[in-house]
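Continuing from the previous page of notes. For each protein in this section, the sequence appears first, followed by its structure tokens. Read the first protein now.
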Amino acid sequence: MKKSISKKKKLNKFLPILVLAILLFFIFLAVLAVQTTKNFTSKAESYTCPSTSTQNYDHLHVVSDYPRAGNVEQNTEINLSTRGYTEVNEKTDLVDYGGDTDPVMPPSLGTMFSHTPVIVKTYKVYKAGTKVIEERWPVNLIGIATSPGENIVAPKAGREIGGGNVLMLIYATQTQATLVHGLGEHPSDGYFIHLDNFCVDPNLLTSYNSDNAGGRTVMPVLKPGQVIGYGNGSDIRIAIRDSGDWMDPRARKDWWQQSSAISGQGSYTPVPVSSATPVPATPAPTSFPPSPTRVISQPSPSPKPTIASPKITIYEIKITATPVPTLIPTPTPTKVPVMKIVKIKWLGFKLLLENFLKLYLP
């Protein structure tokens, strides 16, 4: 009985420590479950790309000394999706490179927005037909935070391509566009601008599809400030190329003249933009028929059965010490028969068994 009480005291002593250890373990699991590793915490609100637009676009003839693009869907120089890209952990600030600068201002990326752009992500583009990244520059594509529905417009540039226009659209889907600061489809025809993860203006997309189906002799063009599309609440991805090379879009002296950008440091909360193009909504009816009255009867809960507490019976074990007989060792003969050895071992085992039974059985 004393041993049983002693065990209970020991258990009561270590029980709080055990409970505390279990509690700390579950707290650790809870913290681990809610931990996030997202680099970009923009509220990518549920935004549906608009299906109508009031925008109008001019068209210009395609003029180039280089071969035509052919099937643009499969063209790795025009369709960014045929290459793909991957996110990299590089600075989200503008960077300063040495070297020459185009004396006539190239497209200024910051003028595509009505606010100071916030760079929140950096990417590397894959080489055509591989999963090997372009190596010349540490970044080939940047992600700029957008608010749902904000206008993304054609940038300012030092040159025009005709009629006051600065860009020709040579490829488009609902969420992607490739534009050239020139009149051709070849990377050497002018600066290429690749845009991804945004909503292309529906009228611009319709114009492109029509020109593409008509043989691509003319293509849509845009003036500075004319709408290309709309932000979707996430980051719009922008790449710019010079003579086919995938440049670093963060280069201040090349792509941010007359504009600037700030680092988002991986976090940005978009705000609603009043100039957003609304998605046409289905008009609500002026009145609704009355709904029938529904009566839901909830059955009373059944009484819980009474469960008797189990009885715990504690048995007291009396332990009586039995003296172990003293064995007088006898000289071991030189040769002992096998049967005698077995008999001696059996007697020893029998003696131990008898003592065990006397000690632990009542």
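Done with the first. The second protein uses the same format. Note its length before scrolling.
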Amino acid sequence: MRRAGTALLAACAAVAALTAAAAVPARAQGHAPHGDGLGRCTGAGPVVCHFDVAPGTYCVRLLLGGGTQPGSTAVTAETRRTMLAETPDAAGRTVRRSFTVDVRDPEGEPTGAPGTPGLDLVLGGAAPQLASVRVERVRTPQILLAGDSTVCDQPGEPYAGWGQHLPQYLADRLSVANYADSGEGSQSFLDNPALFPSGPVSTTATSSTSSSPTTTRRPTATPTAPISPR
């Protein structure tokens, strides 16, 4: 019942976000963007980038390729979230890609380790090539996820939750805030405000594991645009 209740809660959170009436496009919040951020990146395979930014939502715009040899790049962010699947580029050609990252503390599971402050990107794949990177704080519709270990941002391989892989399938005008936590059930999220630590509001909900209403605090779901493939 706990696993079924968790799955139901995660589904309800996603459906509530995806069926909101108003579509709000991503827009800048007036924060100075990190223009050509190559100076914040090191290495070649993988390429590791770090940006000293405050918690928030950030759009990352990449220019991949441009080398004398063909390239193939995949990107993860923060706690191993898959932001971009393996993306090939021909020799001498470039490919533009963008995605939106939820930066928060802790960056993974709500009860897990705090992680590294700021925004971390890892560009891996068969032959990663990065020509430029730009990071800008934006305001976007956001999908909130609640669940257990099957959903959460798992910190180490070979484990991964499905919420950890979801961002790669979304356009950059949507962000994913994955609050799933290993071992939790739907009642846990109703009872423990720490599992939804940001943007709290008071709400009354009925757990699938309890027939009595429970008052809890959780973030609101921002109205979202329809999902479209990359």
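What the second structure shows: The chain has one domain: 2-219. The chain has a mean pLDDT of 77. We return to this in next week's lecture.
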